[in-house]
Amino acid sequence: MSDKIKVAILGCTGAVGQKLIMLLAKHPLFKIKDITASESSAGKTYADIVNWKEDIMIPATIRNMRIKKSNSELDAKILFSALDSSVAGAIEEQYAKQGYTVVSNAKNHRLHDDVPLIIPEINISHLALIKKQQQRYNSTGFIITNPNCATVIMALALFPIYQKFGLKEVIVTTMQSISGAGYPGVAALDIIGNIIPHINGEEEKIQTEPLKIFGKCKDGKLQFADLKISAMCNRVPVYNGHTMAISFATQTQADKKEIQKALNGFPNFLRYYTEPLRPQPLLDVNAGDGMTISVGNLRQCNVLDWKLTALGHNTIRGAAGAAIINAEHLVKNNFI
């Protein structure tokens, strides 16, 4: 335990903060040393203040830990930020300038020129941007971000196709679970037996973030991918798991068997189903402990070239798990 890297969680009481605590409690590389929240929670024990929503008990090592304010000095090398975007920007930047490594789930810094927006299976080379950011801050600290939860799922589902055949255009309709709205989230009277056809800011994120993720990093500069994406986002009465209906046009012509082969080539993060009734949230959302993206129902599209269905766990692979795997790759690539 003493050899583990000390980490802290910023915004520990929210939905993503709780998921981070659950996933980090027995992590082989990291040990939670500090937790932070708003000033009103500071000084209180975690168990006394949190409205715990995970399906396991609060880890014993965290239960009686005292919460600090989110601008305190912290006994940690890595700060996992689950802060709300209304406060995340300034706090994360302050910590980076002080020499901390900030692994953020917030949207504030995702599109900054020198902040890596990382899905490690796709664009680990973008960590080269860190040096430029450290120069700007005049600090050993830095910020890296994981994308929006729906962006993660779509990008991982399409990456094998993009890598092999290129992509020209993508049209995606999302069916996003209620857990993606945090807690208390969407009112029951609004979502039970209903679909809400708008999620504030979501379409813009999905249409923009993949262009940076699929972009090329050279000499400390990033060139966005030349790709058009149209997104329509819906909140649906599913507890966990964002499902997506995706149509796409490839740059290089490909037949169904070639696309299937490409999708089957990444078993470390992608599960491909040949049967048209998969994936489904009830059956597939927890694949790979919530870190696997499930793809199926591949068929020809009458408007673009092909269409498929993708599914991922939004609070694990799309949020807390995404941040943790990013931190693991920082260690693997000697940034920590």
What does this protein structure show overall?
It is a single chain. The chain has helices spanning 15-24, 46-49, 60-63, 85-97, 120-123, 129-137, 149-165, 188-191, 202-213, 256-263, 281-284, 316-332; strands at 5-10, 30-37, 67-69, 78-81, 101-104, 142-145, 167-176, 216-218, 221-223, 228-235, 242-250, 270-272, 293-300, 306-312. The radius of gyration is 20 Å and the shape is globular. 47% of the residues are buried. The protein folds into two domains: 5-148 and 319-332, Rossmann fold (3-Layer(aba) Sandwich); 149-313, Dihydrodipicolinate Reductase, domain 2. By secondary structure, the protein is of the alpha/beta class. Helix 1 packs across helix 12, helix 7 (149-165) runs parallel beside helix 9 and helix 7 packs across helix 12. The strands form three sheets. It has a six-stranded parallel β-sheet, sandwiched between helices. Strands 10-7-11-14-13-12 form a six-stranded mixed β-sheet. A two-stranded antiparallel sheet has the order 8-9. It contains twelve helices and 14 strands. The model has no long low-confidence stretch (mean pLDDT 96).
